[in-house]
Amino acid sequence: MTLSQTQKDEIVDILINIDGPFYLNTFVDDDDEQEWFHINERRMFLDMQRYLPMIDLNDQENWAFVRRCFLQFQ
User: Fold this and answer.
1) Least confident among 11-15, 22-26, 51-55
2) Residues 6+ apart with CB under 8 A from 58
3) Strand locations in 1-74, DSSP E?
4) Please, are residues 12 and 66 in contact by the beta-carbon 8 Å criterion?
5) Can you tell me whether residue 50 is helix, strand or coil?
6) What is the DSSP letter of 59?
7) Are residues 15 and 66 in contact, defined by beta-carbon separation less than 8 angstroms?
8) Is there a contact between 71 and 33 (Cβ–Cβ < 8 Å)?
């Protein structure tokens, strides 16, 4: 399922308002960031199912969009 622009905007708004220190990270470089994502991706996925119940995160395209929203280095 492809996300509409409205859904993408809604996801970004929700993610911006998450007030959890777990998600307020800064990274030295892309390698540092990717290591953190690799270690924590499962926890993030489960959290995002709670924050974004209206989105099917099992759809790889949807999860890829949500994951990209967190990236500092792209």
Assistant:
1) 22-26
2) none
3) none
4) no
5) helix
6) S
7) yes
8) yes
CA quadruple 1, 45, 34, 6: dihedral positive or negative?
A: positive
Is 15:72 a contact under the CB 8 Å cutoff?
no
By the 8 A CB rule, do 66 and 8 touch?
no
Closest to 7 in 3D by CA, of 67, 56, 45: 56
* DSSP label of 42: H
Rounded to two decimals, what is the model's pTM? 0.82
Q: Which of 55, 27, 57 is nearest to 42 (CA)?
A: 57
- Rounded to 5 degrees, what angle do the CA atoms 56, 16, 72 make? 90
How far is the C-alpha of 33 from the C-alpha of 55, rounded, in Å?
25
**Can you read off the two tokens belonging to residue 73?**
């280095």
> Tokens 């199912």, residue?
49
